[in-house]
Structure formats: C-alpha cells, structure tokens
Amino acid sequence: MSDTLLRILADKEKEVSARKEATPLEEMEARARDLGPPRDFTGALCDAVADGRIGLIAEIKRASPSGGLIRDPFDPAALARAYCDAGAACLSVLTDKPYFQGTPADLVTARAACPLPALRKDFMIDPYQVFEARAMGADCILLILAALSDAQARELEDIARSLDMSVLAEVHDQRELDRALGLNTRLIGVNNRNLRTLRTDLATAEALVPQIPADRIPVAESGLRTPDDVRRMAAVGARCILVGEHLLRQPDVTEAARAMVQAG
Fold this sequence. Notes:
The chain has 264 residues and is of the alpha/beta class.
C-alpha cells in the first residue's frame, strides 16, 4: 500500500470515529433503512450499453490530490444536470473533504438535481460509512481493494446489499482483480491510475479487462480524455467508464460528456 493511501486511510479512520461520536451507528443505520429504495445503479449502466451507448459514470469533484483544484466555481447541481442532458448513465460524487474538498452535501445536491443513480466516491473502510452513504441518498458505494482486506470488503458489500445498493469494486492489478472476483458484485472497476505514483496508463485496463468474466461488468476508470480513449477501452470489453477530471476541466461539460457517451 502506498504512503499516500496509508495517510488517507489513517485520516479517514479518525474522521469516521469523530462522526460516530456525533451520530451513533444505530441512528445512522435507522436513517439509512428508513429511506425508500435506491435507484438502480447497475441497471442504469446495463441499459446504456443495451441501447448502444457507453455507460458513462460522470464524476463530480472540486479537487483531487493529483490534479489540485479542478473546477471553480463548483456547482454540483448544475454539473449533475449537464451530465444527465449528455446521456450519462450514473453520477459519481466525491464526499471526501481533506483530499478532494468534497462533502456529503455535494452528493445530496447532485442527486436531487437529476434522476441519475449516484455513487458515493470515498474511502470506505467502516460499516458506518455504508449506512451513512445510503442515509445521504447514495445508490452505490466504492470498495477500493487496495485499501481493504478480503474480510472488510465482504462485510461492507454485505451491508450494501442488505440496503439494495450497488457496489463498485475497484482494482489496479491482477491480485486485486482475483480478490474482487470473490465478491458478489457484478461491477468491477479497473483503475488506470497507479495509487502509488498517481500516474495513469490505459494499458492497465487493456491487460485486466479481458480477464473479467462475462457475468461481470467491467468499468474503466481514470485517464480517459478523448473519444479515442473510450473506443480503446470498449475494444477490450469495457463499455462502461468512469470519467471526472477531463470532463470537469471543459468549458462545455455537456458536450464533453456527450462525446464520451457517443464514442462507442
């Protein structure tokens, strides 16, 4: 595990502990279970692909450790509507504050602005965060295999499934892919960004996606900047993609997202 990831996870543990003090686990679970059913995140991706489109998970974030400040002014609701108008299948919303300047309010605002299902993009390490994600309206959570043991991943997935949420299991190498395939989720994200160096290489997905079984749904993440990049991922079997920074840096977000959706 990289030093950067270790630092993020140590900070996240303290953050979650503080939030548990403010709102106990039992109360957060009750809030999560009192909500209506989540939107169908996995189904939205499948529908897009069935319609001949790229299943775009369009990301909303203000900043990142690798890219610094990405978009200012930052309007989650306007971005969500722009992505929806472009034909995106789903949203991904960063809720981590120390490293991405995100907040739970960003997810709440974005999801309320459009009908798309939303992924809570954060460093999930504790069952509390799964209930918290659903309580804020998230329809899917991200499990980064590099940050979790097999037992942790299974526990968090089980809680998400009990809430009828989708799970996106993220991998970067062969070992992590093998571990992810031990989970029940159909969504397997292949991150082209090396969490140790923060560099991106589309060859990562080109090597791993063909090894993902046909009953799973590969999602290519990071480093996609052009329609040619999207076609490159589709050529190896990843017709679902997660794109953030490239779209957020464009003056016309709708047109940039539409170009991705129609690239397949």
